[in-house]
Amino acid sequence: MTEASLVWHDAAAVADLAEGAVIGRTCAGTAVALYRIDGAYHATADRCTHAEARLSEGEVAEGCIECPLHYGLFEIATGKALGGPVGRDLATYPVRVEGERLLVGLPGG
Ligand code: FES
């Protein structure tokens, strides 16, 4: 995915996302989970690759998100499936800050 093929979507206010937190948003029909880890912003798909639970309802710990349904574990920065019943990695999306807003880059059409 090249930068040129991305479409940037307004996803949330910077103030909506506390350190160590995750929030769920829908951007152009795509469910996105937004995270703030050590001051850096990340975004992944907000559907677990195991049985589509909402990861934004899970727990963030040590740079990972734990699925609330069967406790699958993913590395937030890379989307890598790390443990539990999950075998497929999560999609990840770039995030940028513009003023007080967080924008998520999704693949263009
Ligand atoms: S739905 Fe996430 S681990 Fe099963």
Automatic annotation (TrEMBL):
Cofactor(s) for this UniProt protein: [2Fe-2S] cluster
Query: What's the protein here called?
Result: Non-heme iron oxygenase ferredoxin subunit
Q: Does the keyword Transport apply?
A: no
Top-level taxon of origin: Bacteria
Tell me which family the UniProt entry assigns to this protein: Belongs to the bacterial ring-hydroxylating dioxygenase ferredoxin component family.
SUPFAM superfamilies xref list: ISP domain
CDD domains (alphabetical): Rieske_RO_ferredoxin
Q: What keywords tag this UniProt record?
A: 2Fe-2S, Iron, Iron-sulfur, Metal-binding
Q: Is Glycosyltransferase tagged as a keyword?
A: no
Q: Name one GO molecular function term.
A: 2 iron, 2 sulfur cluster binding
Q: Where is the Rieske domain?
A: 9-104
Q: Which Pfam families match?
A: Rieske
